[in-house]
């Protein structure tokens, strides 16, 4: 059976989607769901169009309980492009809401116009919160990464995502205790927390984004400052990464047990090893692997 495709990418349904929709329909909120899903798809379509305009291709679309996530055929998206693609979804929602409002003022009758406007404004507003995995979080991460580096920027915005998840979940509990059978905030907070934690766990791998940014900087300025430091051969990659600086090219001098220089590893070698072996691999494992570290001459 061939996979279902949407906007050129494979369509994937998140396992949490079905019980979330079933709960909302059971509580008599089916009309909200039927309006919200098309709005979310149009929101994601705007992301796809923006990505296509910037030369990127959609590979997968995942339908989530309160959104639709697109995966691009781009290993490390440049920060400016990430901000443009992320902003395209909320911008499209505001354009649709404004168009429906103007048409209504002009006397054009649109069924459920108020609900369409409310759905678009709500989705745009929530997505612009500066918290991963929301669009606003991606914009904030791209903006902060130039100063803090992608790893720290990802951590900060992912922690913000957990904070807002707790806020939404607390609001959901308050609404339920108050007697209103509306689990929307609670479900959204729960799901946002899961996704934010996933983003937080992926923070070490966000360093890959810095590579493309540094390559662009070298293409533009032709030079890049170097951050050079030494570390014992028993040091883990995760520990070495703490010494990396975002706006410099990082080079690590590996020291043996006798404090003698064993080899020199540049950040590309270290990042390649991290992707292959994980952040808990040691520098010694890189030196003794198939990777050819730069031997220093005495």
Oligomer: single chain
How many whole angstroms does the radius of gyration measure? 23 Å
The ordered string of helix (H) and strand (E) elements is EEHHEEHHHHHHEHEEHH
Strand order of the largest sheet: 1-2-3-4
Name the helicity range. 55-70%
* Beta strands, count: 7
By secondary-structure content and strand pairing, the structural class works out as alpha/beta
Runs in which pLDDT lies below 50 for 5 or more consecutive residues are: none
Instruction: Give the biggest beta sheet.
Output: 4 strands, mixed
Strand content: 5-15%
Q: Sum up the overall morphology in one term.
A: elongated
Number of helices: 11
> How many structural domains does the protein architecture include?
2
- Determine the N-to-C terminus distance: 62 Å
Task: Explain what this protein looks like in three dimensions.
This protein is an alpha/beta fold and 298 residues long. The chain folds into 2 domains: 206 residues, no CATH class; 63 residues, CBS-domain, CATH 3.10.580. The protein is 58% helix and 13% strand. It is built from 11 helices and 7 strands. A 4-stranded mixed beta sheet has the order 1-2-3-4, with helices on one face. A hairpin with a 2-residue loop joins strand 3 and strand 4. The longest helix is centred in the middle third of the chain and has 28 residues. The chain is elongated.
């Amino acid at each position: 059976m061939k996979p279902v495709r949407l906007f050129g990418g494979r369509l994937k349904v998140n396992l949490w989607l079905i019980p979330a929709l079933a709960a909302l329909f059971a509580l008599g909120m089916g009309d909200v769901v039927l309006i919200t899903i098309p709005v979310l798809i149009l929101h994601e379509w705007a992301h796809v169009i923006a990505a296509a305009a910037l030369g990127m291709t959609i590979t997968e679309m995942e339908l989530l309980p309160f959104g639709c996530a697109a995966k691009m055929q781009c290993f490390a998206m440049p920060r400016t492009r990430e901000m443009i693609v992320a902003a395209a979804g909320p911008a499209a929602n505001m354009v649709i809401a404004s168009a429906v409002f103007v048409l209504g003022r002009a006397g054009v009758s649109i069924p459920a116009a108020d609900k369409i406007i409310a759905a678009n404004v709500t989705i745009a507003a929530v997505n612009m919160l500066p918290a991963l995995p929301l669009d606003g979080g991606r914009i904030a991460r791209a903006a902060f990464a130039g100063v803090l580096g992608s790893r720290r920027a990802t951590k900060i915005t992912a922690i913000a995502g957990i904070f807002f998840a707790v806020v939404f979940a607390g609001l959901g509990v308050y609404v339920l205790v108050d007697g209103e059978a509306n689990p929307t905030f609670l479900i959204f907070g729960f799901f946002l927390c899961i996704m934010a934690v996933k983003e937080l766990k992926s923070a070490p791998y966000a360093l890959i984004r810095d590579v493309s940014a540094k390559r662009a900087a070298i293409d533009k300025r032709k030079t890049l400052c170097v951050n050079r430091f030494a570390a014992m051969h028993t040091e883990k990659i995760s520990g070495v990464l703490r010494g990396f600086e975002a706006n410099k090219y990082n080079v690590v001098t590996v020291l043996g047990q006798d404090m003698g220089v064993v080899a020199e590893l540049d950040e590309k070698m270290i990042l390649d090893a991290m992707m292959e072996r994980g952040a808990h691999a040691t520098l010694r494992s890189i030196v003794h692997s198939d990777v050819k570290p730069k031997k220093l001459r005495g």
